[in-house]
Amino acid sequence: MAPVIKKGIKALVDEANQVVREITVAEAITLYGKEGVQFIDLRDIRELQRDGVIPGAYHCPRGMLEFWVDPDSPYAKKMFQQDLTFVLFCGGGLRSALAGRAVVEMGLPDVLHIRGGFAGWRKGEGVIAEYIEKAHA
């Protein structure tokens, strides 16, 4: 017998958008490159390789976000221990909504996510570059 889903992805994303501020691509483009703003790319490495990247965005695979944000985690990253506005994005804006909610609830104070994600960024003619592999600090 198949499990009965009590709350679907649409409801989860709608609830997440009540917690984390969703911004348009146009708003994201105005924030891009500003001091104190860091774009966070939650997409899988294969998506970066296939579709390209937003230059300067910090790649944090969705499955590692909470571990990298928590300063008490053995996986904590310095990037998330700074006083920055974090602009999260994924491929289409769903994973970033859920991820944004999680890190806001963890206590990260200034978190936004892009409606439409990387696909929206591309459609809105945001800056895109080819993926170049590099190590994280």
Can you summarize this structure?
Residues 33-130 form the Rhodanese domain. The protein is 34% helix and 14% strand.
The rounded distance between the terminal residues' Cα atoms is 46 Å
**Rg from Cα:** 15 Å
Average per-residue pLDDT, rounded, comes to 95
Number of helices: 6
Q: What is the beta-strand fraction? A: 5-15%
CATH H-level superfamily:
Rhodanese-like domain
What is the global morphology?
globular
Topology order in helix (H) and strand (E) letters: HEHEHEHEHEH
Protein described:
The N and C termini lie far apart (46 Å). With 137 residues, the protein is an alpha/beta fold. Helix content is 34%, strand content 14%. The chain has a single domain, classed as Oxidized Rhodanese, domain 1 (3-Layer(aba) Sandwich). Strands 1-5-4-2-3 form a 5-stranded parallel beta sheet. It has helices at 9-16, 25-31, 45-51, 65-69, 95-106, 117-123; strands spanning 21-23, 37-41, 58-59, 85-89, 111-114.
Give the topology.
Elements: H1 9-16, E1 21-23, H2 25-31, E2 37-41, H3 45-51, E3 58-59, H4 65-69, E4 85-89, H5 95-106, E5 111-114, H6 117-123
Parallel strand pairs: 1-5, 2-3, 2-4, 4-5
For this entry, give a set of tags.
137 residues, alpha/beta, Oxidized Rhodanese, domain 1, five-stranded parallel sheet, 34% helix
